[in-house]
Structure prediction request, 225 residues.
Amino acid sequence: ELKVEQNPLFLSMQEGKNYTIYCNYSTTSDRLYWYRQDPGKSLESLFVLLSNGAVKQEGRLMASLDTKARLSTLHITAAVHDLSATYFCAVDMNNAGNMLTFGGGTRLMVKP
Amino acid sequence: SQTIHQWPATLVQPVGSPLSLECTVEGTSNPNLYWYRQAAGRGLQLLFYSVGIGQISSEVPQNLSASRPQDRQFILSSKKLLLSDSGFYLCAWMEGSYNSPLHFGNGTRLTVT
Prediction:
């Protein structure tokens, strides 16, 4: 059974600081996705990582994938309040791109 | 462009009542379709997915069922709701190219009383 674990589960940080969210998964996969969820809202796609060593950046967020270590990171640079949300990683279960298993989420709170 | 519609947005139903949630996708053909459930403050649990009309795979045995009567329509149903069915239900679709992300609907918040 594929397990996807995120840590930390909750992160409170000051504006302007940097931090990294980690996503570990238990089986071989070359596809990993990051999503953002605002309170009471649906999920919004942030990044699609499709190969070992893939790195994607959008604004203050940067995601990377190490398939050998079965690890993805979401790095936050100079956090701002607008980044407060819950972030989920999801791993393709069968490496065919059509079945995703989600991590438990990391709730990020950025304080002014 | 593709859009996904999910309704209703909120629903309060008594225990033992039936359920029908509907999801439609526009602007694409033969999408993979999914139903996820999110309990309060928790991650997402895959309930059902479909790769084509009439093709439904269930991930979690329970009192819920799904149907895909048309290419871009996905329905989640129950004959008798349980308290434990409360949660945030999300419909999602994915292109067949397998290099694209899941696109989620706005969700239905179901409260079973």
In short: The interface with chain B takes residues 31, 33, 35, 40-45, 48, 50, 88, 90, 96-105 of chain A (CB under 8 Å). The first strand of chain A starts at residue 4 and ends at 7. The mean pLDDT of chain A is 92.
